[in-house]
Request: fold
Amino acid sequence: MPNNLMLVKEVILLGQATPVAALMAIFSKTFKKNYLFSTTVVGLTTLCSLVTIPIFMGVAQWFWKL
Reply:
């Protein structure tokens, strides 16, 4: 993408670095699947995103300025 679309690139990258949707846990409970596992996955990905989002954005900012 051209550099004048930097905001678009950042939004797309941010969407890729965010945790899985909490709706997954709701659906697994609704359809009588293993909802404890899905809530664990949602929680773990949320905790991991506290580290991965700043790293992804920092690396992307550095890479796109080259």
User: Anything to note?
Assistant: The CA atoms of residues 19 and 45 lie 5 Å apart. Helices lie at 6-17, 23-30, 35-64.
